Structure formats: C-alpha cells, structure tokens
C-alpha cells in the first residue's frame, strides 16, 4: 500500500517537525543554563573563591592558611576537600557536596565551602 500525501500534508508535516525540533532545542538550552550551581569558598569569613559546578568541569587547588592547608577538588557538579592537614579531618570525611545549601566546614582553619543555587556567572572562577 502506497501512502499518497498532498502538498498541504507535506507542509503540515514539515511545520510540525520544525516546531518539535525547536521545542527540543529550547528545552535543552534552558535546562543546561539553569543546571549549573556555584560553590563559594570562604576563608576567615571572607569570600576567597567562587567556582562553577557544571558537568565535565574539573579543578583542584590548594587553600593555604596559617598553620595548614586544604586541597579542594571540583569534579563536575560536586566539590569536596580531598586532603587537609587539620587534626580532626572532619572536612575530608564530609565527602562530596553538590546541592544547595550543603556545606563543608574546616573549623581549625576557618574554611567553609558552600553550594549556592544557580548564579548568572559564565566564568569558571573568581579569585580574590
């Protein structure tokens, strides 16, 4: 059986296809734009660095403070303290955080890492 389409049917199918693809594209862009969170790293009560948490992003850096250090690791949409030389190691034991308002606190060194909700930044990090 052969299906015969009129010219109007072909136009209707074409328009529906274009509208469907546009909707899929828009929803993909809207989802990816709203799905990146920000982690703020505070040292001694002052904002030290802001890091975007987004899929495919990796970063590792060291925060030096008087008496010690924390090594912070970012992997995709999550962040953790990978290594620290503080005596309690609670910041390391906290593990990965990825959703607001989760926090990691290194009390001996007064370092706080907190995930905040989506922000309109389109940069990787701000270092102060």
Which properties best describe this structure?
mini-chromosome maintenance (MCM) complex, domain 2; 128 residues; 2 domains; 3-stranded antiparallel beta sheet; alpha+beta; 8 strands
Task: Give a verbal description of the structure.
The protein is of the alpha+beta class and 128 residues long. It has 2 domains: 1-34, no CATH class; 36-127, Sandwich (mini-chromosome maintenance (MCM) complex, domain 2). The protein contains 2 helices and 8 strands. The chain has helices at residues 7-34, 90-94; strands spanning 37-43, 46-53, 58-65, 68-75, 78-84, 103-106, 111-116, 125-127. The protein has a 5-stranded antiparallel β-sheet. A 3-stranded antiparallel β-sheet has the order 3-4-5. The protein starts with 6 loop residues before the first helix and ends with a strand. The mean pLDDT is 84.
By DSSP, the count of extended strands is 8
Q: Summarize the helix and strand pattern as letters.
A: HEEEEEHEEE
**Strand order of the main beta sheet, please?**
6-7-1-2-8
Supply the number of helical segments: 2
Please compute the radius of gyration using only Cα atoms: 23 Å
Uncertain runs are none
The percent range for strand residues is 35-45%
User: What is the rounded distance between the termini?
Assistant: 71 Å
The CATH class of the largest domain is Mainly Beta
Number of domains: 2
Give the proportion of residues in helices: 25-40%
Shape: rod-shaped
SSE-based structural type: alpha+beta
CATH fold topology of the largest domain: mini-chromosome maintenance (MCM) complex, domain 2
- What number is the mean pLDDT? 84
* CATH architectural label of the largest domain: Sandwich
Describe the largest sheet.
5 strands, antiparallel
CATH-defined superfamily of the largest domain: N-utilization substance G protein NusG, insert domain
InterPro entries: NusG_2_sf (IPR038690)
């Amino acid at each position: 059986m052969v299906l015969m389409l009129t010219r109007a049917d072909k136009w209707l199918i074409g328009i529906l296809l274009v509208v469907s693809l546009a909707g899929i594209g828009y929803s993909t862009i809207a989802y990816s734009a709203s799905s990146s969170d920000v982690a703020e790293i505070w040292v001694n009560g002052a904002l030290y660095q802001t890091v975007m948490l987004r899929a495919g992003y990796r970063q590792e850096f060291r925060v030096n403070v008087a008496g010690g250090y924390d090594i912070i690791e970012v992997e995709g949409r999550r962040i953790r303290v990978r290594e620290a030389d503080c005596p309690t190691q609670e910041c390391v034991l906290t593990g990965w955080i990825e959703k607001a308002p989760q926090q990691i606190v290194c009390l001996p060194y007064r370092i706080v890492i907190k995930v905040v909700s989506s922000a309109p930044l389109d940069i990787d990090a701000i270092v102060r």
